[in-house]
């Protein structure tokens, strides 16, 4: 890659990353709405038990075996990092440049620090890193990161559908729409892939934009491979969340959790601090245990992002040296 193109690419990526005022405000509004609902729900539940709000919530933490909980969560977080880095590594090698896994792991881990603010920002940091270190145009890497996010959505839809179909009668009727969503998503993917492969809509300029480069290059097997690589963390999450929920007094089978968890992860992907939407979803899914589900969702999702950010700090020095050195 020519050296003169790199600063231009970085400036373009930086300019694209500047959020508009409503984009900065929206996550805060979503978080405020979630916590307002949770406060109202928890306050009523506490009053029904003749208790104040904070003692009511504190009781949800009292009987948890935290050693067992950490024994579940720490290996799961490390396992997720290994496979998450593996997926990023494969996609970068397919569509951008031949880079070793040992070079991808530190920057993926360091990017988790930015995930405290926004997951999309963390993927943008990977694009800037590879541009500075390896001369890969930022828009090309950004295209690969966009394809990854596209596949993440389809992975969640796939596993949610599997879970609902396996335990159809165990789910609330609202979840029965998920297979229909999956069917619609499958039709959309077929049209989407035909368009970006040039088989329909020839001459449309949208397809040729740099940000869609990975979609133009991707074959069906690329998408299937990403879904397959995403499967182990999803299945591990089902096991870990099911066992962890039992430590908080909940009781749910692995099949039911397979349907619940992808929906919860959709909420976790929504913008806003502290994964407030995911916490809200736990309370909506288990309305008879609002205190326990609020406590469970809060510690599960926030431990995950803070632990991963802590692991990222271990690699930050190397990533910073390669980015700015």
Structure description:
It is a single chain. Helix 4 (66-95) packs antiparallel against helix 10 (220-247), helix 5 crosses helix 13 (290-324) and helix 12 (276-285) packs antiparallel against helix 13 (290-324). The protein has one domain (21-324). The protein has 325 residues and is an all-alpha fold. It has 13 helices and no strands.
SSE order, as H and E? HHHHHHHHHHHHH
Tell me the number of structural domains: 1
Q: Helices and strands: which structural class?
A: mainly alpha
**What separation lies between the terminal Cα atoms?**
19 Å
Estimate the helix proportion, in percent.
over 70%
**Major sheet size, sense and barrel closure:** none
* Averaged pLDDT: 83
Low-confidence region ranges: 1-17
Give the overall shape. Answer: globular
| Count of β-strands | 0
In angstroms, what is the radius of gyration?
Answer: 21 Å
Strand content: under 5%
Helix segment tally: 13
Note the topology:
Blueprint: H1 5-17, H2 21-48, H3 53-62, H4 66-95, H5 101-115, H6 119-134, H7 138-166, H8 178-196, H9 213-217, H10 220-247, H11 254-268, H12 276-285, H13 290-324
Helix pairs in contact: 1-6, 2-12, 3-13, 4-5, 4-7, 4-10, 4-13, 5-6, 5-13, 6-7, 6-13, 7-8, 7-10, 7-11, 10-11, 11-12, 12-13
How is this structure best summarized?
With 325 residues, the protein is an all-alpha fold. The protein has helices spanning 5-17, 21-48, 53-62, 66-95, 101-115, 119-134, 138-166, 178-196, 213-217, 220-247, 254-268, 276-285, 290-324. The protein has one domain (21-324).
Give a quick set of tags describing it.
globular; 325 residues; mainly alpha
């Amino acid at each position: 890659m020519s050296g003169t193109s790199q600063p231009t690419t970085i400036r373009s990526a930086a300019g694209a990353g500047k959020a508009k005022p409503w984009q900065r405000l929206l996550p805060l509004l979503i978080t405020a709405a979630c916590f307002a609902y949770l406060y109202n729900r928890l306050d009523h539940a506490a009053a029904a038990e003749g208790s104040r709000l904070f003692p009511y919530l504190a009781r949800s933490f009292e009987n948890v075996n935290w050693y067992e909980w950490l024994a579940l969560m720490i290996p799961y977080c490390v396992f997720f990092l290994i496979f998450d880095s593996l997926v990023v590594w494969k996609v970068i090698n397919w569509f951008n440049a031949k880079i070793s896994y040992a070079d991808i792991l530190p920057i993926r881990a360091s990017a988790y620090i930015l995930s405290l603010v926004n997951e999309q920002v963390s993927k943008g940091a990977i694009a800037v890193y590879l541009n500075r270190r390896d001369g890969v145009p930022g828009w090309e890497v950004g295209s690969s990161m966009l394809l990854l996010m596209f596949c993440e959505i389809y992975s969640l839809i796939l596993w949610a559908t599997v879970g609902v179909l396996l335990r159809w009668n165990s789910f609330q009727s609202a979840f029965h729409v998920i297979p229909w969503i999956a069917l619609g998503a499958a039709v959309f993917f077929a049209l989407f892939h035909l368009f970006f492969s040039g088989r329909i809509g020839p001459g449309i300029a949208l397809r040729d934009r740099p940000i869609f480069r990975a979609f133009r290059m991707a074959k069906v097997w690329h998408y299937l491979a990403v879904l397959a690589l995403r499967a182990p963390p999803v299945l591990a999450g089902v096991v870990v969340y099911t066992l962890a929920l039992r430590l908080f007094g909940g009781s749910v089978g692995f099949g039911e959790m397979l349907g619940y968890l992808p929906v919860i992860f959709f909420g976790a992907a929504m913008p806003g601090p502290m994964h407030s939407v995911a916490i809200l979803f736990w309370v909506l899914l288990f309305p008879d245990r609002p205190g326990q589900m609020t406590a469970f969702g809060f510690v599960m999702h926030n431990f995950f992002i803070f632990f991963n950010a802590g692991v990222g700090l271990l690699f930050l020095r190397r990533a910073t040296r390669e980015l700015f050195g």
